[in-house]
Amino acid sequence: MSDESTWPYYNLNLESIAVNGQLLPINPVVFAPSKSGDRGTAIDSGTTLAYLVQEAFDPLVNAITTAVSQFSSPSISEGNLCYLVSTSIDIFPSVSFNFAGGATIELKPAQYLVHYILMDAAKWCIGFQKVESGFSILGDLVLKDRIVVYDLANRCIGWTNYNCSMPVNVSVTLSKDKNFNPRTR
């Protein structure tokens, strides 16, 4: 998270993006936070989609389109880049967001595509939106099937993959010897 006490978001130190394990040619400076708060990468579970600065968006979309080019051609639908697919979404590549300290968010196609049902095929649209400049926001689409932990005291954030259709059991440590489980009270 950013050292700036006035920064209203959880700023992440995103370093790179990879598609099917191949790093994209993106200058990491486009992800770096600025002191003025007008640039960086934020996580926001209240934002539905993901917003990437143009310098990251264009290489990402180009890599995805190249990976599926033998199966589907892209088209623009209501301002979104979409693909008509008659087979499984397994034709789409995995996308990795790589952060400082070795943390990674690995996205399966269902975690970055939005599905629309048509009569004879499925339309899958990229769930990322392009912003001309400023900061990138990783919204709820990227956080799908993850538990996100906001550590306010230490000003940091973490996540783990989780089947969100399952119940969550949360325990809070009060001391070295006692655990408090809010679900059992």
TrEMBL record:
Protein name: Aspartic proteinase-like protein 2
Family: Belongs to the peptidase A1 family.
Ranges where the Peptidase A1 domain occurs: 1-160
Organism: Cicer arietinum
GO terms of biological process kind: proteolysis
InterPro entries noted in UniProt: Aspartic_peptidase_A1, PEPTIDASE_A1, Peptidase_aspartic_dom_sf, TAXi_C
Cited PROSITE patterns: PEPTIDASE_A1 (PS51767)
Domain of life: Eukaryota
Gene Ontology MF annotations: aspartic-type endopeptidase activity
Spans through the membrane: none
